[in-house]
Amino acid sequence: LSPQEHGLDFQRLLDASAYKESYRQDMIRWGEEKRRADPGFFCRAAVEGVAQPVWVVSDTRRLSDVEWFRDVYGAAVRTVRVTAAEETRRRRNWVFVAGVDDAESECGLDQGVTFDWVVTNDGDELALDEQLETLLRWLRDQL
What we know:
- It is a single chain.
- By secondary structure, the protein is mainly alpha-helical.
- The protein has a domain at 78-142.
- Helices cover 50% and strands 6% of the residues.
- The radius of gyration is 16 Å and the shape is globular.
- The relative contact order is 0.12.
């Protein structure tokens, strides 16, 4: 929603480019303002007007997001955390930026959530496939 409201190139905001980094703190500030006014703002926007037998909601950032989904959908909610070692992230051109990468928008779920699945994505395709197969089996069973 922020890119649309501010005339930004959405596709360029999806990568780790300098373009994204130049707007990142502004986007975080904008998101925080929206969340302070209404903690469920982004969650409702994600599901509004659509019904699916299974939802995969990627990139929740805060405990309030997880709590919103649990409040609305109850026991149907399952959580997945995708992790990668800092060394792997650096190989993927990630560079720590103080005030951004240590903000709630980046690490708000580092504590306080017990995840149903933890998927490690450190570049081992076979290991990743095995982990995802477990998750996919569960998803298929829900349909």
